Amino acid sequence: MAAHFGRRLRKGAVTTTVAAVAVAALSASQAPDVTADGHGRRTTADTVPTPDTPSDDSATGNSPYYTDLPPLNSPSPAPTVGTPVARGPAEAGIPATVLDAYKKAESALRTAKPGCNLPWQLLAAIGKVESGQARGGRVDAEGTTLSRIIGPQLDGNGFALIKDTDNGVYDGNSSYDNAVGPMQFIPSTWAWAGRDGNGDGKEDPNNIYDAALAAGHYLCRNGWDLSVQADLNRAILSYNNSQDYLHTVLSWLEYYRRGTHEIPDGTGTLPVGRSDDSPGAGPSPSPGTGSGSGSNGGSGSSSEPQTPGTSTPGPGKPTDPGTSSPGAPSPTPPGSQPPTTVPTPTDTVHHLENAGTAGLTATAGDTFTERIGTRAETEAGKAVGKVRIRFTILGETDATFTGGETVATVTTNSSGVAVAPALRAGEKTGAFTVRATVVGRTVPGLDYKATVTERVADALARTDATALTCTPGGEFANQVEVKATYKGAAADKVAVTATLVRSATDPAQNDKGPYFKDADGKAVRTLSGLRTDAAGLLTLPKLYADDTTGTFVLRLTTAGGATLDVQLKVTEPEPSPSPSTGSSSEASPSPSTEPEA
């Protein structure tokens, strides 16, 4: 099947003089620390994780990946209609459904996390390295892989040791975990990172739409802006903690940014080189056979982050579910002793203790001032470092950790303490729980209670001093506008209640005088659920008057104790003056009479 999709030259081939000259001319234009071999294939530096590599668990568990690098030349523009695909470099073609999934994930993240600036080409680069674009696009119309893509079981034999965390639900292995799907998530990461990308109500790591969206959210956590190189590097390293992996993904990202084109599903070029290839390890599995990782992205997984200066790849090979049980141990060569399993730090954890976290309270929309700390201990109470602690937000709340996620995983330090990212309160008030658990070990979780309180104001004031007057049966010309503040600063999104009360000393709702109108035009004299805007301002709806005259009180109150009484007057209009009538200053002359003759 590899021949069917086109054969790639492997690294380490004999160098030719012509190629060497080309390499010298082109190597300067490659991604950071990337050079080219004699055949024009790019190679990367040794695996040297950077000091600031995130310590939380990676998406793949630091699993093996495809090391094939893109051609030195940039891809040609996408072929026009009727032009054979072969005119464009084969590596620039991405299977239609897979490409659609990447672009839809980018669009979704543009709305959900606009500050992340996730490019779909990054998902394509990771998808290429992890699974050869879902094994050359072998997916059905819904985006689900035609056969499962499962990496080697993580039993410590050449890979890190991750005991089963999903009871075999995703990987079919109830003894150890395996990386799963086209984006190669380990089950413990998928448990919180999984997303429904195709709207079918399921979160399936074997579906490219679900996996691509999950990968996008995973890369966009921690507030990273992927248009910033440092954040981009951190995000990629968090996916697989290997400097060589970083350079490989950056190479494909650069390549795809220069141009790609759509090809039919199932016709993608399959890679051949894997990071766990090593002398004596035997040949890599054929990229087109079985369901093991050699054919589909080949990710073994490691639950423990890489230690700087070490390398992930090992000699372990993938498990092919078609030929052996996923839970079966790796075969032991004849005449040799089975390897001795050394307990991991996780194996020694007996319980979790609160590392000094006191009350967790924050106002809606604010960040909790205190962060949750958890200490992992042995049965004897000794601290256990290098253990992954997962913090999960539970309950009816919209609170999140920094970066917008509801789950965060942190590795304990040398004192056995893991400190969760800062909690940010949402708009829902009330109590919720944050639960700390040990990743990869069944020990009782440790719960922390947190409370979100309502936004408050301690002062209310009108924004102008215009008198509010109206005639009976009319409407007030001016609407009431107020500003809420708290400790002198604008109090945004504070709930305000407006009530037309009987008097300044009687807070009961009045049954006559001014009123508001509801949606049906009926008179109402109490409005609740009003909220100030971002500047702390609130403009009330129009006020109307019935036939009752007098002076009335509109009382505004907020959470936090702010109160303001606004005076309203309903008076009869002033009578118009009568027209003035003046008297003539001269008497009208009497009719003249003729004297008698």
From TrEMBL:
Pfam families: SLT_2. Residues 328-342 have a biased composition (Pro residues). Residues 28-88, 263-351, 569-597 are annotated as: Disordered. Residues 289-300 have a biased composition (Gly residues). Keywords: Signal. Residues 167-225 form the Transglycosylase SLT domain. Residues 1-30 form the signal peptide. The keyword 4Fe-4S does not apply. It comes from the Bacteria. Residues 301-327, 579-597 have a biased composition (Low complexity). This is Lytic transglycosylase domain-containing protein. It comes from Streptomyces viridiviolaceus. The lineage of its organism: Bacteria, Bacillati, Actinomycetota, Actinomycetes, Kitasatosporales.
